[in-house]
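Quick one:
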Amino acid sequence: MSEQVKKPIGITETILRDAHQSLIATRMPTDMMLPILQKMDRVGYHSVECWGGATFDASLRFLKEDPWERLRKIREGFKNTKLQMLFRGQNILGYRPYADDVVYNFVEKSIANGIDIIRIFDCLNDLRNLQAAVDGTNKIKVREGRGHAQIALSYTLGDAYTLEYWTTMAKRIEEMGADSICIKDMAGLLVPYKATEMISAMKSVTKLPIQLHTHYTSGVASMTYLKAVEAGVDVIDCAISPFALGTSQPATEVMAETFKGTPYDPGFDQNLLAEIADYFRPYRDESLASGLLNPKVMGVDIKTLLYQVPGGMLSNMVSQLKEQNAEDKYYDVLREIPRVRKDLGDPPLVTPSSQIVGTQAVFNVLMGERYKMATKETKAMLRGEYGQTVNPMSQEVIDKVIPGEERITCRPADMIENEMDKLEAEMKEWKQQDEDVLSYALFPQVAVDFFKYRQAQQEKMDMTQADTKNAAYPV
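Output:
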């Protein structure tokens, strides 16, 4: 690239979502975020990722916060910066596919409450599961001039995932009407020279901007970003240093410094970034002291590259084996994971497919016979309820686990009737804002517990004295 052509790299800051989701199980409360927003707004980020993913569930379940309220407060703090969220396609932020009317409603309310960019992904890369969310975003864009639909491809390895696979997907994403593409490398599997190859190939077939998201788990992420930027990637996801590295993203300050004085220089002020880092550092220390931040997730785990297993999936598996007093079976399960993945059509390992494959592998090893017992999620996957996989699933496994059952070949959501009215009728006694219906749709039990808590707070009841079993709350 010649000296003259400037192409500053866009940087998306993940501290308010993926960084703390990856390192401290999404436990950062809204009050921790608000005091620093004005400084963050001055950096010049491409966007700030602050919502979606597990933040919605964690806010309601553990922090007793309204996620919609969080979004509105964050929106107030950012006058000049785009806000971004992560959206699980037809599963929205929950764990089952929802009807299209719920997806449309959720997209509309997300944008109305302050989201600019919706990053939409599907655990099988089945683009049919993303269409409703893209259409919903585009409808609002036409009507209000706001909203950006970014489709994220879950990056994974395997015979089926050739360069041709990725370029074909890029072309199809452009045809679907998306505004940009994200390569979502949730396990840190994309190595530097592969990134050069992949970005160059995708750039040759699409005009859409391409963003790269990875995790530091396997230790290569910063080098991967360097090669990707040189190959023409438009935006990279980074985290401010106290919550960077480990299972999180490369550090914002380091990447900004790396490109300083080059055509890719984002032009960030290191003093301003240092003030933001100083703000989060005591919280990091506190999280380490309380055990919320486990030093284990801060290192490099090269097993990720050996077994292609995301960090969260590994820790899940270890705790399942511990419960069964079967920790000695760790390597047997690691060897079983690729076999189960192959049986299920080689899906990328990301929520929820990673949990499905991992849990089934544990069962197969502990039972001493493969698929002697199958989880309901494995059965649903084999039936086609999650969508279409890149390779066909094992007929032998289908015959053993769901013999004679009918399989779905259409888009799974085509089988689901509209459900907004029914959901609203079920929870109307708790409704204080339209958004409450959506909270209830995603997490019925957790949302109702939160609504009870909220009502008690509003009526200044003493929750410690509350007799929740009999719903008696002393004031």
